Amino acid sequence: MASPAAPQEYQCDKCEYTSMNKGNFDNHYRYTHVGTICAWPACGVQTMTEERLRRHIKEDHCIKDPNQSGRVRCPWPGCGKDFAGYSGALRCCHFHQYAGAHADDDDDDDDDDSDSSDDPPADAGSVAGSGVDEESNNNADEEEDVVGAREAALQRRFEALEERVAALEQQRTTQEDQGN
Asked: What is the pTM of this model?
């Protein structure tokens, strides 16, 4: 009799998260790794971290507004799913954000007829100890585009910070001149 297969441990390629359950791993990925640019229609806010983007979605888009039955509806345009509590609606918004942030990933797969566009990419994590080098599976051109976009965003933020520092230094100089 063949021995049962050893359980697989799924390791996230973006953080330290691991799970023995593929469904839990997929939910972690879709909830946590939402990107840094808001996919809410006509928003486009860009944040420095995924955590800040999740907070932006929570504070600016996913309001606590139960309907007459006490259930909370997902406010994402076109969704309308009802949840027993606010956390379910917020989780739904994060899943929509993940799908919106990765919509371009699906456009490249014209041959793929699967309807699992909200699932994490197949190379999102690895089976621990499998020896698979996940980075070798990435497309170098896509990585360069992402890096270029991040560098441009960081450069804009750096320039804004430099302007702010200059303004604060000018304010300090003015206050010192007034004090003397």
From this structure: 0.54
